[in-house]
Write a structure and sequence with these properties.
The structure holds two protein chains of two kinds. Chain A is α/β, with parallel strands linked by helices. Chain A contains eleven helices and twelve strands. Helices cover about 30% and strands about 20% of the residues of chain A. Chain B has one domain: Glycosyltransferase (Alpha/alpha barrel), CATH 1.50.10. Chain B has 13 helices and two strands. Classes of the chains: A alpha/beta, B mainly alpha. The interface between A and B is large, with 33 and 44 residues.
Chain lengths: ~325, ~300
């Protein structure tokens, strides 16, 4: 009897160990979207002015993007209007980007976002000043929380979701530009171009907030979303960034930078370094560096100015102090 | 702009198969459909049969409604559907099944394991997980808006068909709403404090939570929340949030005629309101005081 029990316990332990090992080594993605070398530009800008358009257009031309005749979706980060807090991608930058892509030959530019907390999207768009900005430029805004939905199989399997309902506007766009606000995040460490794609997930299916995805793992969901809906380009708003208890309750940090990249992983790795945070310690960035883009600096070509030599690290919550780059 | 004109516009926008999408898509949304049925019922003696037929056709076998046609899961819209069916006088077993699903559906933190986790590892969320409500969809936490509408649906149903189970869920739901109230009154999506920093209340969540508590004792917290909401309306221009505020404040005895005039002015250019749920809730708010309030509770 004792021998049988021992045998059972040994077998059970063996099976549990094998399952654990398998879960670690199993292949979670079947694609490799990494470029031989990604390109990143860090632009200096002290404020949100009309001059952004000229600055942005010049920098975009340096990337030699093939936009002609293609539909472009700009995906900013709009959460809610908190006056004075650098929560949302600035409307001036969004408007400038829309005009730039039209000038580069895009057939159509739309701005789409599905705010994660505030259900009154029209109020968010109006109060943040985006409605005025887009109206002046005759650019359409699409509420991704309430767009027509299509079910898509995820192209990676970190979260176990398997399939996601996604907005038709997103799946139908030829060229997707993630436009995050550079911020710390109290759960994910940072919120940059990859995390920003959480906003394409529709509230009408997943709720406000999209809490089902939290239960499947924030980092894991980010990886599955970004594998399924590849980001073609990044324009990250770091003119006024957020440090501390982001993404809503942190403090203003005047970084004075816009980060452009043709690779979301390279963009996020660079933004994290600007923030004084080691991107290798942010799970979704590190893991995305294995198949979605380049994280290593030796595979990133910097256009124009490089990373500043001395940056005061962003303040972070105590549980994230281990993420800070040590001198 | 009067409520009738908005309802006529809504009727023009109904999909050929019945039901309404949020915008210009052909995918019917249960939220938009139920609000449009409520708005229609407030303005005309009868709701078109094909609208109701559509709503009934998408009810799932377990009594719940999905968020939209084609979705495989039950969702928070079950509460809205129950309210809509209550308003149009449906007395079939459909509503009974819907409320049965609501009684059985809980936020994920109701499970002992997650309750323990929220009390230990996730204490920074600042919630008491013993007080749980309803999720947007099964498998997620309780949130304020789904909880508020589930409480309203159960209170409306149990006014005529009382049950201990429904009453127990109503009490737990109310306790959850009171637990998650923001520091100075009002409600955010679900939490009131994260890592020691208070969150700002939201208008729609506050209006929904207050409507769910319209027949509860007027505690200082409830009255602070009413005051907060009233204060927010001073410069509010967004049609949906203004409409929810009117529907809520009316139930708390606040005069809403001026707010209705402002809403009528903001909603005048009806073609600019692309979201059909916004159009429907604006129609309901403009009808407020002139017809049966869809979220009123008689206990």
């Amino acid at each position: 009897m004792n021998s049988n029990r021992r045998q059972f316990a040994t077998t059970a332990a063996g099976l549990a160990g094998a399952a654990a090992t398998w879960s670690v080594i199993r292949r979670r993605h079947g694609l490799d979207a990494r470029k031989a070398r990604s390109r990143v530009a860090i632009l200096s800008a002290e404020c949100y002015s009309d001059a952004l358009e000229t600055l942005l257009l010049g920098a975009l031309r340096d990337f030699g993007l093939n936009i002609r005749g293609r539909s472009v979706l700009l995906k900013p980060n709009l959460v809610e209007h908190l006056p004075g807090a650098p929560v949302n991608t600035n409307p001036k930058l969004i408007g400038a980007a829309a005009t730039c892509f039209l000038r580069l030959g895009a057939s159509r530019v739309v701005v789409g976002e599905g705010p994660g907390h505030e259900r009154d999207t029209e109020m968010v768009v109006s109060e943040t000043g985006l409605e005025q900005e887009l109206g002046d430029r005759e650019i359409t805004f699409v509420d991704l929380n309430r767009d027509e939905l299509v079910r898509a199989g995820t192209k990676a399997d970190y979260s176990g979701l398997g399939r996601l309902w996604l907005p038709k506007t997103v799946l139908g766009a030829d060229f997707i530009v993630s436009m995050p606000k550079i911020k710390t995040h109290h759960w994910a460490g940072v919120t940059l171009s990859l995390k920003n794609m959480f906003g394409i997930v529709p509230g009408m299916k997943y709720g406000w907030p999209k809490n089902t995805l939290h239960w499947h793992g924030i980092h894991e969901s980010i990886l599955d979303i970004c594998a399924t809906v590849p980001v073609d380009f990044v324009i990250a708003d770091g003119i006024e960034a957020m440090e501390g208890n982001g993404p809503l309750q942190g403090q203003l940090r005047r970084l004075g930078r816009i980060v452009l990249a043709n690779d979301p992983v390279a963009a996020d790795a660079t933004c994290a370094r600007l923030m004084g945070i080691d991107p290798r310690l942010i799970f979704h960035i590190a893991e995305a560096g294995r198949f979605l883009g380049n994280m290593d600096q030796n595979r990133i070509a910097m256009l124009g100015e490089g990373l500043p030599p001395n940056t005061e690290p962003f303040r972070v919550l105590p549980q994230f102090q281990n993420l800070q780059i040590r001198a | 702009m009067r409520g009738r004109e908005l309802v006529l516009e809504l009727r023009r926008r109904e999909l050929p198969q019945g039901g309404w999408s949020f915008g210009d898509s052909s995918q019917p949304s249960v939220e938009a459909t139920t609000l449009a049925i409520l708005a229609s019922a407030a303005e005309f003696p009868e709701v078109p049969a094909h609208s109701l037929r559509f709503l009934l056709s998408v009810q799932r076998g377990d009594g719940s409604w999905p968020a939209f046609k084609g979705d495989d899961d039950g969702s928070w819209t079950t509460a809205l559907a129950a309210v809509a069916l209550s308003r149009v006088g449906d007395d079939s077993r459909v509503r009974e099944k819907a409320t049965g699903w609501l009684v059985d559906t809980k936020g994920r933190e109701a499970h002992w394991l997650w309750r323990w986790k929220f009390k230990t590892a996730d204490a920074q969320a600042g919630i008491d997980p013993d007080k749980y409500g309803w999720p947007w969809m099964p498998g997620a936490n309780s949130w304020v808006i789904p909880t508020a509408f589930a409480v309203i649906a159960l209170k409306q149903f149990s006014a005529c068909t009382p049950s201990e189970e429904a009453d127990r869920r109503i009490r737990t739901g109310i306790a959850m709403l009171l637990d998650r109230a923001c520091v100075g009154g009002g409600w955010n999506a679900g939490n009131c404090v994260v890592y020691g920093s208070p969150l700002k209340p939201h208008i729609e969540a506050t209006a929904a939570a207050l409507m769910a508590m319209q027949d509860e004792p007027r505690s200082p917290m409830i009255m602070r929340s009413v005051d907060w909401l009233r204060g927010q309306t001073a410069n509010l221009r967004a049609v949906s949030s203004l409409a929810w505020s009117i529907l809520c404040l009316f139930l708390f005895g606040t005069p809403v005629d001026d707010l209705k005039s402002r809403l009528a002015a903001h909603a005048a250019e009806v073609s600019r309101i692309q979201n059909n749920s916004t159009l429907a809730i604006a129609a309901l708010a403009l009808q407020c005081g002139e017809t049966i309030h869809p979220f009123a509770l008689i206990r």
